[in-house]
Amino acid sequence: MSLTAHIPSHRKPRRSAPKSALRAGVAGGVLSTIAVAGAAGPAQAEPVTQTIEMPTLTSGLSTAVAASAEATQQVALDLETQAQEDAAATSAAKAATKAKAEAVRKAEAKKKAEAAAKAKAEAALRASRSEARTTLSASSGATAVASSSSSATGSAASVVSFVRAQVGDAYVSGGTGPNSWDCSGLVQAAFRTVGVDLPRVSQAQSTAGTQVSLSNLQPGDILYWGGAGSAYHVGVYVGGGQFVGAQNPSTGVVLRPLSYDPPSGAVRVL
Known about the structure:
Elements: H1 19-40, H2 58-148, H3 154-165, E1 170-171, E2 180-181, H4 183-192, H5 202-205, E3 210-212, E4 222-225, E5 233-239, E6 242-248, E7 252-257, E8 265-268
Parallel strand pairs: 1-2
Antiparallel strand pairs: 3-8, 4-5, 4-8, 5-6, 6-7
């Protein structure tokens, strides 16, 4: 026996765990043992199949597709609108070009018409002035011829009267009347009225009669310009220092003083 066996201890006695806790621990141990035994046993439970439902994307995809289609349609509409605008612009440009060309054509036509009207008016004015000069010349010449034709008798007076009556007629190359003449055609027609048949051209008429001096002229003598036999123009002396001749297209048949265009010579037929 120890010496200290009977010495009372000063430690407090250990309290025992509550019964309820003890029971809980025992029960837990038993349950764990049963669970382990069940898991290790030959019988196994069927596996549990769990279906996981994936979130659907249909609604979002439809929205995206719709948005894409709308954008594409808008692009197509924009392109169509642009094409229409371009076509309208091209059409307008063509119309403007055509209108401008038409305006230029009309302006040119108007300008030509105005020029033609002006030329016609000027021609009418020149003709009027020419007619006035011819009338004045014929009037003054008629007075001189009347005073000098008193010395012209018979056939010579008839020739003078005929050529005076043609003053104012037109000059036409090859013309033989009754309203247009060339120089030799007028002279031939005048002498034909008195039964004298002269050659048709100036060269032959300049040698058809007797050559006379220009200082000894009588009414009815044939005047010529150029050489005898090679004359290029003829006329009829009507007295008073004047002659009648079909001069040129600008003047026609005129009455002129000898000084207007002095002749080269003269022949007497009557």
